[in-house]
Amino acid sequence: MNTLLFPVILAGGKGERFWPLSRKDRPKQFLSLDGSSRSLLQATADRLIELGGGWDSLWVITSSQIAEGVRQQLPDLPSQNLLIESEGRDTAAAVAWTSLEIKQRYGEDAVIGFFPADHWIADQEAFAHTLSAATQLAASTAAIVTLGIKPTFPSTGYGYIEQGEKIGSFNELPAYHVNRFTEKPNRETAETFLSTGRFSWNSGMFVFRAGVVLKELHIHAPEIIEPLEQHGPDIYPQLPKKSIDYALMEKTTLAYVLPVDFGWDDLGDWNAIERLLKTEETPNVELATHVGLDTQGAIIYASNPEDVVVTIGLEDVVIVRDRNVTLIVKKERTQEIKQILKILQSDSRFTDLL
């Protein structure tokens, strides 16, 4: 049985909540948001190729709009390992197509892992230890393994996984059958989840054998897998747009969870920058040249180091300066950036801002 992990980076997202830094020609996964020189996509590739197999075992699936950018960001990625979607159809189609391609090349026992391109991981050693455990479980069991992040607060922005019966330990990490997946709960429900100790955040990272997931897709999502098998990727625009959670994970009886803790953030919006970089010694998070008076709790970013951001009497705001756009928003309303983008899309004067 093949125990080499074939990691797949899901790199088709837009990252609209990081606008104006994230735009059509420069989506979130191409950005460096932690002050380093490596983009989120490059950092994801860095930690995955270290798990074994090198570049030859790494795959990326992305959209036609940004495929050239992926090539520029990852010049060592073999061209045959880059799958380009003609039209984005969410993660279920991406998982199905990539799994078919890897099965054709390496067989149905090939162990595949899927990883979003825009996550932040703090502890690479713990991450590698976890992936080794997940690979062992997937190689030895008809299992679709998901990594559950041990929650640190009652988040209402993440989905949750309830662990059921313990099935054993892999690489000294306990594994459980999944009782259920729950979408983003209200705060009271999230607090109840945490009090039980049985719930993890849904990280969106999965590990399984190619043959196992394809069989389960035939059972639970034939409208996706069957057209792909019959017609290949040319059928892509006609596939239903569904997430892998909705199409498969919420339905399969083969879902298992490894509750893990390696320092994780899905970098959902600008507030994530504060979680990564805020220190007790500084009143603000500043990735810009900032001169402030009575300003605290602010997140300030400027892509041009020559731009100077000056603030007076501000609190709990996000200020982003990029090219010809300045965004100023209260931190609790960053989720509404998507609504602003819809307004901009409807006005031809602003198409170059998207």
Quote the beta fraction: 25-35%
How much is the radius of gyration in Å?
A: 21 Å
What do the pLDDT scores average to?
93
Which percent range fits the helix content? 25-40%
What is the spatial order of strands in the main beta sheet? 6-9-7-8-10
Question: Between the first and last Cα atoms, what is the distance in angstroms?
Answer: 47 Å
Oligomer: single chain
Note down, in words, how this protein is organized:
With 354 residues, this protein is α/β, with parallel strands linked by helices. It has helices at 40-49, 54-57, 67-73, 90-106, 124-140, 187-196, 210-220, 222-231, 244-249, 271-277, 337-345, and strands at residues 5-10, 59-63, 82-85, 111-116, 120-121, 144-149, 160-170, 173-182, 199-209, 255-260, 264-265, 285-287, 289-293, 299-302, 308-312, 317-322, 325-330. The radius of gyration is 21 Å and the shape is globular. The N and C termini lie far apart (47 Å). The model has no long low-confidence stretch (mean pLDDT 93).
In short:
The protein is α/β, with parallel strands linked by helices and 354 residues long. The protein is built from eleven helices and 17 strands.
Identify the notable features of this structure and list them briefly:
single chain, 354 residues, alpha/beta, 5-stranded mixed β-barrel, 4-stranded mixed beta sheet, 11 helices, 17 strands
